[in-house]
């Protein structure tokens, strides 16, 4: 049973803060493009999208027509989405262009949901690395996502459609571990991987602001999981040996967060999701209400407005016991000065919730 079903308070607050009663219904029959779909997080996300009746174009370097997600999907019958796996090198602009041309002519046409999931890591030190490694990490983790995002926004703008862009980031896109932590899991270094993830975080905020100022019905969500049980770490024997004894997230945990954000009302912007595992919990440098350690989703930032999502570059963290909600008297149309922040913390089966809103007066 899911956490939300076990805790009615969670459901009530979720609905109150933007969880649409229709949920994912408005996305049924739409098309999602997911990069890095051959396994791990990408595969889990693709499977969840298909089960929600969303068509999926899955991109990967060596994607087989019958990936595990496709096999499981084909076993069932029902109003599920259609799955089209395509081999694509996302670091090549021409390949990306062709993929969007395919999407334009498939089913209902276009891409309404983009999931920038593909990523590569390198467990070496920057001072011992080379330009080829730097270029590879930048191309896959940053430039490919930027190209796909630009084409998706352009397509949605031309077709005047609602859209949602997801950037599968990392906890390393928020904070770099202190010295000594990496050695505990057999890692000598992370190269420029944290730098690329910080760049992806900045890009998410920048694109979110741009589409907001352009009055486009497009939302941008950045997901930051901790250690996830995927092949990206298993490729390194030394790291994999140590990670066997470290609590890790499951790819489905990330997929759950994505589906939750996708199902919210159009006027609600789910900006950032932090998905923590126990290992990184004691090494965070953020306020406790943001980064409590658990394998559950810990915190999400909600930017709500009656007109359009604001640029979520400033978040109001207001103690509800010291501040109260303020609205413009006699007017239903107001725009927030800051984002609406909703934080859930789960301790021993209890839910403690805090929320804060600051509006222009």
Automatic annotation (TrEMBL):
Coiled coil: none
Keyword Oxidoreductase among record annotations: yes
Record's keyword terms, sorted: Oxidoreductase
Family annotation (Pfam families): adh_short
Keyword flag RNA-binding: no
GO MF annotations, alphabetized: oxidoreductase activity
Family, per entry: Belongs to the short-chain dehydrogenases/reductases (SDR) family.
Name the UniProt record assigns to this protein: Uncharacterized protein
Species this chain originates from: Trichogramma brassicae
